[in-house]
Amino acid sequence: MARVGGVLLVALVLLTFSEICYGGNVNAERIADLLQRQARSADGVVRLDDESLRRFANPSPEPRPYSLVIFFDASQLRDNAELRLEELRREYGLAASAHAKGSTGGSGKLFFCELEFKQAQASFAAFGVSTLPHIKHLPPGGGGLKEADEMEQSDFHRTAEGMISFVEGKSNMKIGPVERPPSVSTKQLLVLAGGLLVTAPFVIKRILAKDTVLHDSKFWCLGAVLVYFFSVSGGMHNIIRRMPFVMPDRNNPGKLLFFYQGSGMQLGAEGFVVGSLYSVVGLLLAFVTHFLHEIRSKAAQRFIMLLVMAIGFTAVRKVITLDNWKTGYWIHGFWPNSWRSSFICYSQAFCAINMSFISQERDSEAKVFLLFTVHTLLVLQFFPFSLPLIWKEAFSCWQSEVTRLFYQLVGQLSPDACLEEGIRFHHIVGNQGWEE
Question: According to its record, how does it sit in the membrane (predicted)?
Fold first, then answer.
């Protein structure tokens, strides 16, 4: 029995020693593979799929001696302007590069990785990731994927520095500074400097002769129009938030959306349309104030003025309609209460003057026709305004006066003509709606 016990003890010691050696070899192989993948990556991010994640995140046979920071990505959602996955991925790459280049004592202890949805759907489900953007930190040890720490959006503020702050707080490691690539490379600076040296004599000569674009008034006029277009089109909003010109429809991927319904967001095409409408109004106003008076024909001036008013009214109304469609709010015009009585007196005087001209007409049928004409002109006069109360009061005064005069006029007609014209009149006057 003693010999059997001794053999079992030796076997147990050898088995334990082999497991330790095997586990150490497994971790060493995994770290070496991760370091090799990190070196091959342009920005230091290790690209994983379902199979490689199971290998590197598996806590057996020995717990992980390293931690993994995982960025969850989906190529089919890169075009979504609200998620801004491409920008976040670029910032994540800068954070990974800072760790690979400047981390103190962090080689083999921390790895920045990414999972793409099409290649790692099972891993997305294992981590419980259902929304993007998403970043998780899987600490070292024997814990499973569910124990990974999620990075809240408020923690990283969509910048590489914020991501590094989150990782340093979870891993207790110091990561090097972020090195952002310069906007202009050294070669570009050299080419630019050479071009300036070559063109400097010619430019100085033209400046002294006052023969440059900056001395041309048309250039400044065009610049003013562009600044106006940029200010009214929401160009600064689109640049700051990097809004796309168009976006695909979620319900119909083959269809493009040029207008986004909802406040707080607009696409580039929408800003271009609104800026164009406002620019048309501004240019027409500039034409009227600076060039219209040079036309000698009064009839042509009146026609152009009416045309400009119609185009301006249509353009502004299109913008208001678009705002109503986006926000649900509508713009109404209201006059002060002190103006109401003056407006009603004006409308009554307008009707009385027109009635005096009608009463001087000898032809009864012509009188009835003029009544209809006055009615139409008065309605068209009030039509552009959203003044329901004033409309109703002014129209009631006008309707009573016209009705009284109408019966005086149609009394001169034959009974059949009187009946026919009376039906026509009440059909026109009685059916005028004031819902607007």
Answer: Multi-pass membrane protein
Can you tell me the distance from the alpha carbon of 391 to that of 5, in angstroms, rounded to the nearest whole number?
111
How big is the chain, counted in residues?
436
Q: Where are the domains of the chain?
A: 25-171, 216-327, 338-430
Buried b or exposed e, range 173-212, using 16+ CB within 10 angstroms: bebeebeeeeeeeeeeeeeeeeeeeeeeeeeeeeeeeeee
List phi, psi (to 5°) of 72: -95, 125
SS (H, E, C) 204-226: HHHHHCCCCHHHCHHHHHHHHHH
Gap between the Cα atoms of 114 and 70, Å rounded: 5
Q: Residue 160: helix, strand or coil by DSSP?
A: helix
Q: Which two tokens stand for residue 397?
A: 């005064």
* Fold entry, domain 25-171: Glutaredoxin (3.40.30)
Is-cis flag, bond preceding 201, omega within 30?
no
Residue 382, phi then psi, degrees to nearest 5: -85, -10
Distance CA 353, CA 371 (A): 12
Look up residue 36 and give its amino acid: Q
Question: Per 3-state DSSP, what percentage of the chain is helix, strand, and coil (rounded to 5)?
Answer: 65, 5, 30
Mean pLDDT value across residues 48-57 = 90
- Taking each helix axis as running N to C, give the angle between helix 388-410 and helix 415-430, from 0 to 180 degrees, rounded to the nearest 10: 180
* Contact residues for 170 (Cβ-Cβ < 8 A; gap 6+): 67, 137, 139, 149
**Which tens digit of pLDDT belongs to each residue from 92-113?**
999 999 888 876 555 678 999 9
Peptide bond into 61 cis (omega under 30): yes
Q: Is 263 exposed, middle or buried (0-12, 13-18, 19+ CB in 10 A)?
A: exposed
Token pair for 401? 């006066």
Neighbours of 330 (CB within 10 A): 10
Q: What are the strands of the beta sheet with 110-116, ordered from one edge?
A: 46-48, 110-116, 67-73, 134-138, 149-150
What amino acid is encoded at 73 in this protein?
D
Q: Which two tokens stand for residue 392?
A: 């109703």
The residue behind tokens 């910032």 is: 91
For helices 364-382 and 388-410, angle between their N-to-C axes, nearest 10 degrees: 180
pLDDT for 199-232, tens place per residue? 888 888 888 888 888 888 888 988 888 888 888 8
pTM of the model: 0.49
- 26 and 61 Cβ atoms separated by less than 8 Å: yes
Rounded percentage of the chain residues whose pLDDT exceeds 70: 67
Residue with the bigger pLDDT between 263 and 344: it is 263
